[in-house]
Amino acid sequence: MEFEEMKKIWDAQNGQAMYAIDESALHNRVIKKKNKARRTADLTEKIFIGANIIAATMILVPSLLKDKYSISGSLMMVIMYLTAGFILYIRNKRLKVQDNFDDSMVGDLDNAIATSDYQIKFSKTSRFYLLSVVLLTLASLVESGAAWWVILLVTIFFTVTYLASRWEHRTFYVSQNKDIRAMRDKIISMESEASEDELDQQI
What we know:
Layout: E1 7-10, E2 17-20, H1 23-66, H2 71-97, H3 105-144, H4 148-202
Antiparallel strand pairs: 1-2
């Protein structure tokens, strides 16, 4: 948790913990987390859109030039183009609502959490999508009569890719989400304590 700006000051008279916070510096950290979540989602979307369009085109062009089509290859090409279009659709949808949050520290954290939740869902879905690509790729290799060792190498490659995506999901996306939520809970707790202290002083 990044709260270097927070300095704990003990009130010797009543033994209560008080907090002196540089709200401007803390809010800047919140904004950095919000922008980091946005950049991560933005980069992931662009990579998937570009990768799917390029891969689908690499299947389409040789098929057109050779006038030779395979069922699995054609199906994979269609799925990739549709996937790129769908990601573009949900990306535009995300961008339209990403600023519909309160202009406050907690509002910025809610914004970051919403983007992080989106990234986690995207990451989970992409792994299932990867499995469909694996099956279609293997089917295409079998259909074209590829050697067994080629099929084995492709299987190993996709297995490593899948395991790496799982590690990335847990290490980066889920961890970042937990960190942002913890910061939000802490700030709300601090604001609540500050309000209670003001009320006690008035009484």
